[in-house]
């Protein structure tokens, strides 16, 4: 079997510019997630997650957590902050 690209299990790093371009193709040019993933050799599920986060940011949280909200939860550690009763 011939191998191409990245060895199995090796992590591929994409630049922020590449990720932004993938989002633009899917949202602004109406391409499907599968089309964009195949064209740019991306993992479809990773691209779908990126699109969901971008959609939440664009809708100011109406469709999910914004980047700011995710960062706040990450800083709090467990996601509950100090408001959780003991």
Describe the structure.
The chain is mostly helical and 86 residues long. It has a domain at 16-61. 52% of the residues lie in helices and 0% in strands. It is built from 4 helices and no strands. It has helices at 16-27, 33-40, 44-58, 67-76. It is globular. The model has no long low-confidence stretch (mean pLDDT 81).
Question: What letter string, H or E per element, gives the SSE order?
Answer: HHHH
Strand content: under 5%
**Percent of residues in helices:** 40-55%
Describe the largest sheet.
none
Structural shape:
globular
The tally of helices reads: 4
Q: Which parts are unreliable, with pLDDT below 50 for 5 consecutive residues or more?
A: none
Span between termini: 57 Å
Judged by helices, strands and strand pairing, the structural class is mainly alpha
Q: What is the C-alpha radius of gyration, as a whole number of Å? A: 17 Å
Question: SSE layout and pairings?
Answer:
Layout: H1 16-27, H2 33-40, H3 44-58, H4 67-76
Helix pairs in contact: 1-3
Task: Supply database-style keywords.
mainly alpha; 86 residues; single chain
